[in-house]
Amino acid sequence: MRALRNDRVLRALMRQPVDVTPIWLMRQAGRYLPEYRAVRQAAGDFMSLCRNPERACEVTLQPLARFDLDAAILFSDILTIPDALGLGLYFEEGEGPRFRKPLRSSADIEKLGVLDTARDLPYVVEAVRLIRRELNGAVPLIGFSGSPWTLATYMIEGGSSRDFVRTKQLLYSDPQLLHLLLDKLAVSVTDYLNAQIAAGAQVVQIFDTWGGALSAAAYREFSLDYMTRILAGLTREAEGRVVPTIVFTKGGSPWLDAIASSGCDAVGLDWCMDIGQAREQIGTRVALQGNLDPAVLRAPATVVVAEASRILRAFGTGSGHVFNLGHGISPDVPPDRVAALVEAVHSMSVK
Ligand code: CP3
Asked: Measured from the CB, is residue 154 less than 6 Å from ligand 1?
């Protein structure tokens, strides 16, 4: 494989010097882009798009053709794992993800298998290979997975949830059964991420979207401990380079210190914490990724630039910052705001 022409993201994640602050965006391929909507329509539905490596590759590359982004992220979904484990994922228009067979009994959890990525999710492995080939060294490719806790919430609730009633019921009434599920998911996620790394992913991010719904003690026991275990089981080097790892817990700022000690190379921040304060707390242990409020992208470009500048100044000088949103981009964002953001981050980086 040829050397990377732009390795800013890899360097910043390892806290090595960079010429300008690198930027990529969570959900950078998606419905806010008309060219994405066209491919999704041609594919029929979202899961058919995920299951087709050529189309998944095509939409992965779309935002890079428009914007000067410093990384690509595999186009897929965190819920491919539960789907492959037999829960039957589908998307109800406007309602988000749903499972035909959610986990409803202890027997459901006991008989649940563990993922063998090569056997169960070959389309993801194939997409990673194809994207790497098509990127041809332009920027690094980020692979990803959901955290065991976040996956468990969808598998138990049967879809998206506000309050995680069933999952928390299980957590407080039969914690050992929840641990059995999280254990199977941790083994599955480790295999999944290692398969992505073997196929060419150069960075991996764990999305712990719902970790912030837990108490401090429960977060440690039911989310962070499993991510720590996964990180310890990941392939650390590929193609002669370290494969940096990012942990993103939405709502995780109160536990920043603990997350920074999980064995990850970088912590993803949502928009709630000042990134300068976060940096003071964690020192040089890990890099930081974030943390623009995605809602800013609905404001005029001048506001986008001002808010980006505020974050760059708050982080300050020195390496170890990968600019990103504090959560995924929304479908109603005008693409020209993303162009303004990327341009602003590169041109206003604190040298
Ligand atoms: O970042 C990227 O560009 C890579 C692609 C990606 C998607 N989902 C594509 C997607 C990634 C990294 C994800 C992760 C994901 N999926 C998470 C964790 C990150 C987060 O945003 O919190 C979660 C919780 C999911 C589960 C999921 N998938 C939900 C709740 C939804 C419905 C969203 C909605 O608005 O309908 C999805 C579907 C999904 N995943 C879409 C995309 C582009 C929209 C599908 C469509 O085209 O209609």
From this structure: no
Q: How far apart are CA 114 and CA 181, in angstroms?
A: 10
* Cis upstream peptide for 136 (omega within 30°): no
Q: Per residue in 8-36, pLDDT tens?
A: 999 999 999 999 999 999 999 999 999 99
Domain coordinates of the chain in residue numbers?
A: 30-283
Architecture of the domain whose range is 30-283: Alpha-Beta Barrel (3.20)
Q: Please provide the DSSP assignment of 236-286 as one string.
A: -EETTEE--EEEEETT-GGGHHHHHTTT-SEEE--SSS-HHHHHHHHTTSS
CA-closest residue to ligand 1 atom 33? 96
pLDDT digits (tens, 9 = 90+) for 142-179: 999 999 999 999 999 999 999 999 999 999 999 999 99
Tokens describing residue 104: 């409803």
Residue 159 is classified by DSSP as B
Whole-number pLDDT of residue 93? 80
Pick the atom of ligand 1 nearest to 49's CA: 47
Between CA 231 and CA 236 the distance in angstroms is 9
Q: Which of 8, 40, 279, 337 is catalytic?
A: 40
Q: Are 206 and 220 in contact (CB under 8 A)?
A: no
Rounded to whole angstroms, the Cα distance separating 79 from 102 reads: 12
Per residue in 259-302, pLDDT tens?
999 999 999 999 999 999 999 999 999 999 999 999 999 999 99
Contact of 69 with 8, CB cutoff 8 Å = no
Q: Which of 116, 126, 145, 122 is nearest to 203 (CA)?
A: 145
